[in-house]
Design goal:
The protein is an all-alpha fold and 290 residues long. Helices cover 64% and strands 3% of the residues. The longest helix is centred in the middle third of the chain and has 29 residues. The protein binds fe (ii) ion (FE2) (2 copies).
Length: 290
């Protein structure tokens, strides 16, 4: 296919919205905004809670706590760095969604994909914390840096057209990081074991969601906002990845930034694409919604 920023690829947002809503209802089940739950996600976590898996590797807590801050280095255990990245990867989205949910009435529109997306983001925090817990550490997510909180707070008052552009930008940066974390998880743990399989499943559930978030947000943008989003990724993605010491220690941040600028969802692993919402056969044309 092509980069998500390619303006020559027309996606019909009405069709994407209808298809994506059908996909979300199937994947998530009924959404309850007041309770902050999605029926099928609750079932997923109930199954996880009913079958805890033992962690039998070396203790990671001290290295993990060090890797959360300036103690992260390329000599830290890779799994501790992975956990530190997971611990902060959803700080911004969690904070933004909690602000949004608190600012709007609890009756969500079940026909609006954003209803499901917002709730999925809450589950991402739980998925990440469960992955860390599976590696023997209990952790609670912290508030994100001040500039993220500021951006999230201003978004509540932004018109939809701006909101979708910022959502798209954040989803692209996030998806590249989650794709890297998912790939790395398969290197660091053995997916054939109960513990390794659990960790891979938890991180890949997030990646499957994020692919849909990117595709949906992208479909709401015309060529101008698509271009602005691309310039914003070009300007900020590298700095955003570098801001987390553990990301610098575990990954090549320039390669991550390049992957964000050129994000092509069709290059994700086949087993992820098979489960994710992919916009199939977009029409190549110079026209796109404004
Ligand atoms: Fe997320
Ligand atoms: Fe997302």
């Amino acid at each position: 296919m092509s980069s998500v920023f390619d303006p020559a690829v027309l996606v019909l947002n009405r069709e994407v919205n209808t298809d994506y809503l059908r996909f979300l209802k199937e994947r998530d089940g009924a959404a309850d905004r007041r309770a902050g739950t999605l029926a099928r996600r609750e079932a997923y976590f109930a199954a996880i809670d009913a079958h805890p898996v033992p962690y039998e590797g070396p203790p990671l807590e001290a290295d993990f706590r060090a890797a959360l801050g300036a103690g992260a280095s390329s000599s830290s255990p890779a799994l501790a760095l992975w956990m530190a990245i997971a611990a902060s990867a959803n700080e911004g989205e969690k904070y933004s969604v909690e602000r949004i949910l608190a600012s709007r009435p609890p009756q969500a529109d079940p026909e609006d994909p954003m209803t499901y997306i917002e709730l999925e983001e809450l589950y991402h925090t739980r998925l990440l914390l469960d992955a860390i817990k599976t590696l023997g550490v209990d952790y609670a997510v912290k508030a994100p840096p001040l500039w993220v909180r500021f951006l999230a707070s201003t978004m509540i008052f932004a018109p939809k057209s701006i909101e979708y552009m910022v959502v798209f930008f954040s989803e692209v940066v996030g998806t590249v990081l989650f794709a890297a974390l998912a790939r790395k998880a398969r290197e660091l743990v053995d997916p054939a074991t109960a513990t390794g399989g659990r960790i891979v499943s938890l991180i890949e559930e997030i990646l499957v969601d994020e692919v849909g978030h990117v595709a949906f947000a992208r479909a709401q943008l015309g060529p101008v906002r698509l271009w602005i989003a691309k310039q914003t990724v070009r300007a900020l993605a590298g700095a955003m990845y570098r801001a987390t010491p553990a990301i610098r220690a575990l990954f090549d941040t320039e390669a991550l930034a390049e992957a964000a600028i050129n994000l092509d969802l069709s290059t994700l692993p086949a087993h992820i694409r098979a489960r994710a919402f992919m916009v199939e056969a977009p029409v190549a044309t110079g026209l796109a919604p404004a």
